[in-house]
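Sample intake sheet
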Amino acid sequence: MNTLKEIETLNERGILVGVNLKSDEHFEYSMEELENLAEALNVEVVGIVTQNLERVTPSHYVGTGKIAEIKAFYEETDANIVIFNDELSPSQIRNLERELECKVIDRTMLILDIFGRRAKTREAQMQVELAQLQYMLPRLVGLHASLSRQGGGTGGGFKNRGAGETKLELDRRKIEDQIAKLRRDLEHVQAQRDTQRKQRRKNAVPVVSIVGYTNAGKSTIMNQLLRRMGQEDSKQVFEKDMLFATLETSVRNIELSDNKSFLLTDTVGFVSKLPHHLVKAFRSTLEEARDADLLLHVVDVSNEEYRFMMDVTNNTLKAVGVEDVPTIYVYNKSDLAGVEYPLISGDNIWISAKQGIGLDELIQIIRTNIFSNYIQCEMLIPYDAGAVVSYLNEYATIQSTSYEEQGTLLSLEIKEADYKKYEQYIVK
């Protein structure tokens, strides 16, 4: 069985294999990304084999003539693993392993293994495990070692048992039971998430979600915004120049200088050909973005394929129901792209998060979008309603305070919900 754990036990020297279907303009980048994925698992890439086809070969993915070339290359480079650039069917894996006489792994398995290693929280670990089991289940068929019969009519108390169940059937049942349990556990976690989201809406706290391709700089932007607001280092999230550095959804409260605040969430990054099992497993996490008041779509503008990355991100968001949420496109790494920054044009902003340049402009754009429902007014609050004054001092932007004969006169900017709540005190 090509279990994900087997990848870890190898001293990996890999050959990458890809099929360029119908002259795909993004094929070269897809192969480059596959190499990055392999290297993320410490696989030393010793060769690359590609083939141009109109459609993949159902039995072996590549044309049968190409298999001899891959095998010769495999032996010549002293490789011990062959990695294919698409998800292979169970029969394709079996046929390829038989013909090549070596371990065969596909792009999906690579991504699942990376997610498995990066997952830190219990929720992320459950999500990855669910995706791994769903991937493994149809690939149990044909495992030679698993097909030996269990038990059988050997006399004694086992006489009426018959041939017994195959280990394959037992494995399948065990995996199906695990999948069912993980789904129940994740539904429980999702219910907790829904409760938290309802509480945020009740408290009218605006939510800004950071989305984007993996390694675009999402965590860097979150950390830089926290630093800019003078918030403690303990709130910093992990950031590193690597694929899928973080899988956990981080939620941080960003406190602005004028008593306004908003929640900033950082979601898992996307990649082309992201396994559909993984997208489904992470659905509840990605739904953080669906309920946001504003999306920050972070783009690595220094990458030549950045428009393709934007399309992948948008299509993945659409697949989990994230639509019609106001979006700001944050073109990060502008310093590496050699473009003018900081620069704002409509719903687009060019910044360098690493250099900390453009963050003030980004905060201003966020303000404009999520605090558009704030109302400027004056309130006269009787002295016996001191609790209201305390509340407004904490949650509104107070421009001036004066003490009149009838009570405290406040000139302030207040969110619409509080405006309606305290409208009896409004004088102007």
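Comment: The chain has a mean pLDDT of 83. The longest helix spans residues 167-202.
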